[in-house]
Amino acid sequence: MNQLTSSLGSTDGEYFTPNSTSLGRPARTYLIDMALIQIQGPDSERFLQGQLTCDVSALKNGMWQLGACCTAKGRMVANFVIARQNDDFWLRLPSTQANALQTHLSKYAVFFKTKLIERQDWVVLAELGQESTRQAAHTVIADADGLCLQWPDNRTEFWCNIEQADAWLNGHPLCSSKDWHLADIDAGLVWVNDYSREEWVPQHIDWQQHQGVSFSKGCYTGQEIVARLQYLGKSKRALYRFSLPTNIEIKAMTPISNSDGKAIGELASLCHNIANSEGLAVINSLEQQLDAVIGENPVTLHRVFYTESSDS
Q: Which stretch is the leader sequence (predicted)?
């Protein structure tokens, strides 16, 4: 992949920046910070059904959804995109999480006829602004080159072998992978990373709002805690959106305080664009809007759009 990035752009390990950046759409990019795990074997569905928050048994062939894997205490080890292609399942998640999730799941996989493979020979590519219909959302289109996943907000992911990556990117307008992560923030999507592993239950990042949690499936690891939070009392933590000037450098998990100096949460994700920095924070509040301080920087927090009419 080094040859690909050197011929088309550069990377700092977190973001891909093309040599020639297109501001128009559609435009393609390389999600260098994402990885893939493939799960194979006749028991894979049954194994994953007992470990993940989403309803794996209801996931049809050629479809994808969001999901998470929790500890017995309901804390997320990782969250991900999960796709089904025939009898195989694929998980797309931050690359810093792939080994940790594989190690966690392997403790339970020994009791099933299943195999987990981190596909280091595959890459995650993406396209923003490709028009699609609601009917096409959450579909997985497979061909000889790889797997193409359609998002409901006119985004597309393409998972393929490294050898196919150059052909998929070459000859098309390219954009920074920051644009993809900014779109995630705009959609209210937080990805658990190495620094936030086992910090949150799914509801803390509104994962149920993205259908990443099924409350009607059977038991899975951590299910009792997750279900209790949903049915016996609403979560006291929620996801908030904010903006900061681009030149302010703040690390994820930086504590956030209210105007009185009391700690109320932490920074979940942050991405810089030309004008400013956009971020998401997990906050101990259910207010629609509140003033806060991140580091030494005053900021106004706003509940993420899909929670404005819901307290779930």
A: none
